[in-house]
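Quick one - inputs below.
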Amino acid sequence: MTEILSTRGLCKAFGALTATDDVSLTLRAGEIHALIGPNGAGKSTLIAQIGGALSPDRGQVFLDGEDVTALPVPARARKGLARTFQISQLAQQDTVLQNVLLAAIGAARQPWRFWRPALSDAALRGRAEAALTRVGLEDHAATVTAELSHGQRRLLEIAVALTLSPKAFLMDEPMAGLGAEGAARLVPLLRDLKAEAPILLVEHDMDAVFALADRISVLVSGRVIATGTADEIRRNAAVRAAYLGDAA
Amino acid sequence: MSTGQIGGQPPNPRGIFGPKKQGREALLNALVLLGLVIVPLWAVMADEPFTITLVTRAVIFALAAVGLNIALGLGGLVSLGHAVFFGIGGYAMGILAWHAQNYVPLFEWPVLFEGTKSMPVIWAVAVLASALAAFCIGLLSLRTSGVYFIMITLAFGQMFYYFAISWARYGGEDGMSIYVRNGFPGLNTLDPIQFYGLCLAALLLGLLLHARLRRAPFGLALNAARQAPERVRAVGLDPLRLRLLAFTLSGAITGLAGALFADLNRFVSPTMFSWQLSGEFIVFIILGGTARLFGPVVGAVLFVLMEHWLGALTEYWHIGFGALLLLIVLFGQGGVIGLIAGKARAHD
Ligand SMILES: Nc1ncnc2c1ncn2[C@@H]1O[C@H](COP(=O)(O)OP(=O)(O)OP(=O)(O)O)[C@@H](O)[C@H]1O
Ligand SMILES: [Mg+2]
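Output:
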């Protein structure tokens, strides 16, 4: 299968702390690749290096075969990397629709337009509204983002990423704080999305991970200690000892 | 980013199809505009030229603050150096007109240029020069945020102020007087009401630009960059570039106001660069209401009126003014407009 995204030998240290230790991963077309690991394992740090917010000390990131290691965040986004944040990054005072419109403006590369309202641009608006409908937020288009529930905000994060029509999704704990029920509702949406673009999914919710992931990588202390299918990971002794414990 | 605290819109509980109070803001804006038309016309009839001068002063200050409001209100950039652009606009007028009135060529190469007394040319120079300065200052200062940004813009302001003081050729500390107001094709600018008409037209254009800008893709992105810069980067846009352009546009408009101000007084001096003036521009916006289209207008009008009336009572009028500002900031829901019209809606 074709690799959409890959890292090669990524390393990142914060002082004496090795947060990313020689990580090589691949994300293939059509798959959900889950990244699991205990708190502080370095999952968000890894996502940040792939997205471009952090630069690695060593190693490379490839998107669609191209080395993007030197590119800043906006350039990587324009090349097709869409990221959701562990802690929502949304324009809180803007409406829900405006938040997805922002993504539509970014995707269309049209920020240098000064006269016509963004809302009355049918192309931008259509793209934004389609994404809202996709995640089920269409009835909240006019709601101010700060007034959304936590769960709705997580959905909006996904809608924003979706609006970009990316080549790959980077999702950092999209289900955090949703509860079992909320997380279960996201499962079909993510399964649906992976047909569009593969997802590198950081997630603590093991039910969701085992339900969704085509492959799982386990990160402990910055190092990938195992990669495999759900079954392989469940059976892996090192993983059980380091992370899954009695849960699996 | 901590600068976001002053700029921006307070959330509105009822969404964009909100409350009746929204209608009140529109009404208030209409009344302010009406006042800006009627009062000077009345002053013409009553033969009160000083009133016209007063309103002209308010309108020019409002334009300067409308310029600042693009950086501050939309971009969240608390610039304490916007008098730089006001001053550059003023000196653009002063220098061009001084050469023309004294028959001293400004330069002889590549072509002879003797300065000019034509407002359109002066305005173009003022806008371009202040835009260029804003671009350069923005490039150097926009990587910082919060207090550092405030301090750097303040420092630039002081630099220009002291430079103007030491620029002996153009009057140094004393500034320059221009004997006759500059001209505008087809108008008699010596007639206060005609000059006022020009200033009001400039203000209306500035307001129109601001209103369009904030709803256009650029304004939406700029506004998001203030609230969630990481998000803006993640959708492929560069907050720094958005802010740089906002700062440049902002400086250009404030520069135009500076040229008009110089023509109103037929005088320029280094005080046009002073940090107090920069602070006053911010005060206009806060007083009127941040994130309100007419915030700078209401703020500037109130300021000029109080300066006139309280200033006649006591030279310590700033104390009373400061107290009023404090009350508004503490108890108003976003300035005087907020007191009258309720909370702002999310911009649409
Ligand atoms: N900017 C930073 N400076 C110093 N240390 C950092 C920085 N960012 C992260 N760390 C440290 O690096 C380690 C990895 O952090 P990271 O946020 O990547 O973990 P994580 O796997 O995402 O954890 P969680 O499951 O809690 O989200 C942690 O020990 C963290 O304290
Ligand atoms: Mg994390």
